[in-house]
Amino acid sequence: MPKISKKFLTIWAPVLLMFVLIVALSLIGLYYSLKVSDGIGLNTKKVSVAAGENIFYKLGCVRCHNIKVLGIKGGHVGPDLSGAYSDVEKVYRENVNNFLKYPSGTMYFVLMFNKLSKEDRKTITEELKKAQEIKNKTEK
Fold it and tell me: Which structural domain range is residue 51 located in?
């Protein structure tokens, strides 16, 4: 059995332990900050929106995203989702529904602990398509 050096125990073991602790606490914090069953995020005001648009509040999308063309105000960490219906396809080469089912990039970590149901993905896709259509009309 290899002998553990005194240098390792006094220098590297505490550094490694601290690193593991920081990563664990970060993941725990990420889990609890993204666990959104009540839809309360950065925007804590009660908002009256159409039933379909309510999905973005219910799932907490507004913690990071706005959807300006639908009048949905939220956080500014993520991009405005007004044009996401076509942007997702351009950037990730797949439709919105598939992207939400098998996310990548930052959204992978966001949806890791908060999987979307088939119905939620369908509603989000429909609302983002509606937002895209409104955005396209206003840009012409």
Answer: 38-139
